[in-house]
Amino acid sequence: MLLIALVLIALSVGAAVLFLMELAPSRSSAVTRRLEEVQAGGALGTPDVIRRRRRQEQAERLTAIIQALGEKVEVGHRDTSALRMRLIQAGYPNAGAVPLYLGARIGLPMAMGGSLLLLLPALGQPWVNAVLMAVWAALMGYVAPTFIVRSRIAKRQKQMQKALPDALDLLVVCVEAGLGLNQAMVRVAEEIERVSPVLSEQVGLVNLEIRAGTPRDVAFRNLGDRTGVQDIKSLMAMLIQTDRFGTSIAQALRTHADTMRTKRRQRAEEAAAKTTIKLVFPLVLFIFPALFVIILGPALIQIFEALGNFQQ
Predict the structure, then answer these.
(1) Which of 94, 113, 65 is nearest to 73 (CA)?
(2) Whether the predicted pLDDT of 134 surpasses 50
């Protein structure tokens, strides 16, 4: 029975591999021949270059397979705009990000679960444990892409939120010095790059959209949607209203900059107030037991020795 089960699993894995190979986009013979010529010409490089090129080709081939699988899955989704926006907020603005994400959520559980289902019985583990571990690995593989995207979104938003007050102060200085709003944003994007490359990139994209013909209010709204930071959304809404009603941009920016600094100070005070609660668990689990051992240890030894003398 064990041999039959292994043969069936091997056949299933082989069928899955053939299915994924069928999903991979095929190249024409001319393109394949040209690539072989280029590879033959570049074979004179160093071994490190050749190995690096091979790893790159393998990564591109695997990416093509996952993307093809994701494109098949994407057809069944009615609307992927929300997912597309979340991937943009996570720093994946490419057009193939959605198929890659969907393909990873399908291919990663299959790879992790199938590998454990084959490996653990070969190592002598019972089939029940192998199936349970394979199911657990498949669930982890299904959740891992979502967890990675969420963590990247949180990291990028935190970086932009920390750098926003400084960027806003610099924007106030540039506007009050006589620069237009577009030129001021370009200057801010150049100067803030050392502090927050993410915010610098997003602010620079606003100017590129305006140069491409996008209306200014639409470009501002796109910036708020791309970042997902509430402070940036409120700043963009304020700039849209100021531009629409013709009020002073410098005065509005200065007022908003004061509000941002107040918010940053309040966040720092809130984080400082939370430290006392967060220190309770390390104190109870690590520091207090060590103190008890150091303080009460000698006394307990002396008590045991005294009790031993009484018994004698």
Answers:
(1) 65
(2) yes
3-state secondary structure (DSSP) of residue 287? helix
Q: CA-to-CA distance for 15 and 27, rounded, in angstroms? A: 22
What is the mean pLDDT of the segment spanning 68-87?
A: 76
Pair (246, 223) in one structural domain: yes
What was the pLDDT predicted at 43? 46
- Cα(241)–Cα(249) distance, rounded to whole angstroms? 10
d(CA 194, CA 181): 21
Write the pLDDT tens digit of every residue in 32-62: 555 555 555 554 456 666 777 777 777 777 7
Mean pLDDT of 264-274: 86
107/162 same-domain check: no
The more confident residue out of 223 and 73 is 223
* Rama region for 229: left / alpha / beta (φ>0; ψ in -120 to 50; rest): beta
107 Cβ contact partners less than 8 Å away, ≥ 6 residues apart = 20, 65, 66, 69
Helices (H), the chain: 2-23, 29-41, 47-74, 81-89, 97-122, 127-176, 181-191, 197-211, 216-227, 230-245, 249-278, 280-282, 288-311
Contacts by residues 75-83 (CB-CB < 8 Å, ≥ 24 positions apart): 77/102
**What is the residue range of 268's domain?**
156-274
Q: What is the pLDDT of residue 258?
A: 85
Q: In whole angstroms, give the CA distance from residue 178 to residue 281.
A: 54
Are residues 20 and 104 located together in one domain of the fold?
A: yes
The tens digit of pLDDT for each residue in 187-199 reads: 888 888 888 888 8
Indicate the Cα dihedral angle 12, 15, 16, 21, nearest 10°: 160
Mark whether 15 and 135 lie in a shared domain: yes
The answer to whether residues 40 and 53 touch, using CB atoms and an 8 Å cutoff, is no
Task: Tell how far CA 246 is from the center of its chain.
Answer: 39
- Average pLDDT of the chain is 79
Residues found in the chain? 312
Q: What is the DSSP letter of 91?
A: T
